[in-house]
Amino acid sequence: MSKMTDNSASFNFNYLLLAGLGLVSIAVFIIDLRFPLGVAGGIPYALLIMATYWSRRKRHTVGAGILSTLLIVAGYSFSQPSGYLVMAVANRLMAIIVIWGTVWFVINYKRSLNRIKKSEDRMSALFEAATEGIIISDLNGRIVMANQKIEELFGYPREELVGEKIEVLIPNRYQPKHKRFRLDYYDDPEPRPMGQGRDLYGLHKDGEEFPVEVSLNHFENEEGRFVISYVIDITQRKKAEHKLLKAHRELKQKAVELKHSNEELEQFAYVASHDLQEPLRMVASYTQLLARRYKDQLDEDASDFINYAVNGAQRMQELLNDLLQFSRVGSRAKRFKKVSSEAVIENVLQNLERYIEENDANIVTESPLPELSADKLQLVQLFQNLIQNAIKFKKEGKPEVRIKASELEDYWQFSVADNGMGIDENYQKRIFVIFQRLHQREAYSGSGIGLAICKKIVERHGGEIWVDSEPGRGATFHFTIAKNLESAQEEKRKEAIKNQIFS
Amino acid sequence: MDRPVEILLVEDNEADIRLTREGIKEAKIRNNLHVVRDGEEAMDFLNKKGDYRDVITPDLILLDLNLPKKDGREVLEEIKNDDRLALIPVVVLTTSEAEKDIVKSYKLHANCYVTKPMGIDQFVEVITAIENFWFTIVKLPTGIKGK
């Protein structure tokens, strides 16, 4: 719509201009006729040419030139001849030269004006379309120019801003300081971010403050020196930062609490299992003493009952011992050292020598096994539990256990595979829970602590443990050991922060 | 040996005292079992102070670690730092399986460290073994047994 009105306006203007030019040319022509030929009556046509400056079209100027030339020639034909003919012709020619000189000048002037306007339009588009708010201010801190974004950010139309001190855009409490900083900047006007190390705030027209980031630059022209401030609203960033910081703090807090409660729990398990042994020992001992002393006076039932009591006490002692052992994974942990996993396996095979022989088991290690940064005793326990399990839950026939390692980016992954009875998928997670057993006590001994200890040891080494198995087809236990515990933990922390933020 | 061996049991748990008594009863060696119930009493007994003016210096001490007043570790330290008592074999007999207790006891020159077993049979075995070991197998300075 607005474009159309623009066009019709300039269309009307062009008609007016042409009409004006027509009148002027007629007037000049009449004057020219009144004067003798010796007078350079063509020169005033130059005014006609200059008037075409107001028309945007090049052809109006050229047209005016042609018209003037024709009129000059016509004037020669109609005017009274006087004086020398040569003079008169030279006069007319000179007028024509002046006319075309003026044409050339007007066209070129218009062209360069056009060029400047285009470049100005581009600059102003750039200025207006900038995603940063831009303010140009003079050495007194008065705003000279501001862009569209500044209007959006601060809520003032720019007419209200221009001429104001730049401090209107700053919360009251920063204003005196800002004036000082502003003066300092003029002394050393290097381009730089403003308020390094400080949080900066903008003041919206409605009195609301918002965090901003400002960079400064300056320029100089014939009007003087000016400062350019680029303003970015960083509310969103601050919010995100705040959220991140909060998540980080919370997580840290949680980690501390967790560590604390974990330590407490371990201490509790340790003390409980230790102190519980004492009364248990009394129950077991005195029940046995009873049986021993009064064997002859008791009937068969009484002996059975005593047996059950003693078995119960012994069973409970085993559980307590296991609990003690489990709690020690954390509480008796040693510092990590360089450990050869080959040496660990060797150690385990020595410990299990009799067990392996009794079961006629075949243990195959696929060398080479890597060197790890780990707690050696715990690694021994880990492999020992896994190998022992592999043999314990065998099928008919010779048990075979294969141990191998493969290298991942940040971890070593080990596997202990057997050809035993395997584990149903439903139970594959449960087996790592403390005191979870899949088999009846009569069939397999043990309290169900072995794999729980394995899991705890692996986790202490920054890794994970899982099992692949099908009933009747053997089981393969996989576990990972972090090459660098700290970076593995850092990785986990980052993951946790991510989860916390996006949850 | 013509006279019974004198054993000092330092133990605060009544049930344990009785159990040790019963265990010792079944042992083959003739003995007198003296019982004190905390660390201070133990030191009084050994130094023949107060009520214990007339007791005999024991040939063997069975010492629990967790005692009221003065605990077993202190008692052990005092015994081993005292020239007159240092030669008496001290058997630490306790429920603690803690590595640090074991190490600490040996550092304080305990003669051996035994954990109380769960079953009565094993307990009797342990007591018998202790007696056998210290009074028939081991050669001790004559000053101790003969006194």
UniProtKB/TrEMBL annotation, chain A:
Catalytic function, reaction form: ATP + protein L-histidine = ADP + protein N-phospho-L-histidine
Enzyme Commission number: 2.7.13.3
GO molecular function: phosphorelay sensor kinase activity
Keyword match Phosphoprotein: yes
Domain Histidine kinase: 271-485
Transmembrane segments: 12-31, 37-54, 61-78, 84-107
Domain annotation PAC: ranges: 196-246
GO biological process: regulation of DNA-templated transcription
Catalytic EC class: transferase
Sequence ranges assigned to domain PAS in this UniProt record: 119-172
Database matches in Pfam families: HATPase_c (PF02518), HisKA (PF00512), PAS_9 (PF13426)
Domain of life: Bacteria
Gene3D superfamilies reported for this sequence: 1.10.287.130, Histidine kinase-like ATPase, C-terminal domain, PAS domain
Protein name, per record: histidine kinase
Species in which this protein is naturally found: Fodinibius sediminis
Record keywords: Kinase, Membrane, Phosphoprotein, Transferase, Transmembrane, Transmembrane helix
TrEMBL record, chain B:
Modified residues (4-aspartylphosphate): 64
Gene Ontology annotations of biological process type: phosphorelay signal transduction system
Keywords: Phosphoprotein
InterPro entries (UniProt xref): CheY-like_superfamily, Sig_transdc_resp-reg_receiver, TCS_response_regulator
Domain Response regulatory: 6-131
Name of the protein in its database record: Response regulator receiver domain-containing protein
Annotated source species: Fodinibius sediminis
